[in-house]
Amino acid sequence: MSFSTEQKNEIADQPFTKACCRRAELSGILTTKGSLLDGGGICLTLDRGVATEHAARLIKEVSAKEPEISPLPKGGRGSLVRAYSPALSRELGAFFAGGEFFHEKCAQCRTAFFRGVFLASGRMTDPSKQYRLEFHVKCDIARFTEMLEENGLSPLVSEKPKETLVYFRNSGYIEDFFALAGMNSTIFALMNSKIQGEIRNNVNRVANCETSNINKAVSASAQQISLIQELIDRDLISQLPDELKKTALLRLEHSDLSLSQLAAMITPSITKPGLSHRLRRITELAKELVERNKKRI
Question: Which member of 11, 99, 194, 234 lies 3.0 to 4.6 Å from 94 by CB, making a disulfide possible if both were Cys?
Answer without folding.
Answer: 99
